[in-house]
Design brief:
- The protein is rod-shaped.
- Helix content is 79%, strand content 0%.
- The longest helix is centred in the middle third of the chain and has 61 residues.
- Helix 2 packs antiparallel against helix 3.
């Protein structure tokens, strides 16, 4: 059984990604009349616009993915802190000499935990607000560029 030695060239720069040149290489036509040139030019413009649109969405997606990773880490750290607090409270309760001391420990624990939950909620909302603004930034900039282009075309 013969083994195929044919290798497909693959650039590290464009590995796994279609770029404008790669897309256009497949669309070149042997005929070079004015009509075909105009059609190729229109086709290239369409591909360029689609590529720009996709790039804006890729940038926005990267923002979301990074922000979600940061949110996950934040929540894991908070969960870890709360679990340690629960364990410490349980250890303190074991050493109580009377009900009044146990009540004070539980009351302090509940008050502290409530404040920590409120602070963490505020932290998460701040992170989410930033994420939302950062998510829309590439899309907003892309839309502004597109509208400027449309405005220039209509003049």
């Amino acid at each position: 059984m013969a083994r195929s030695t044919k290798k497909t060239p693959r650039s590290n720069k464009t590995a796994g990604r279609l770029d404008h040149q790669t897309l256009m290489a497949g669309s070149t036509n042997k005929s070079s009349g004015p009509k075909q040139a105009r059609e190729r030019s229109e086709h290239e413009a369409d591909i360029g616009e689609i590529s720009d649109d996709l790039e804006a969405f890729v940038q926005a997606n990267e923002v979301i993915m990074n922000a979600m990773a940061a949110l996950s880490l934040e929540m894991l750290a908070f969960g870890n802190k709360r679990l340690r607090g629960n364990i410490e409270c349980s250890e303190s309760l074991v050493g109580c000499k009377d009900a009044e001391e146990a009540f004070r420990i539980q009351f302090d624990f509940a008050q502290s935990a409530t404040q920590q939950y409120l602070n963490q909620t505020n932290n998460l909302l701040t992170m989410l607000t930033k994420m939302t603004g950062d998510f829309w930034a590439p899309l907003q900039e892309h839309t502004r560029r597109a509208l400027r282009g449309l405005n220039q075309e209509t003049r």
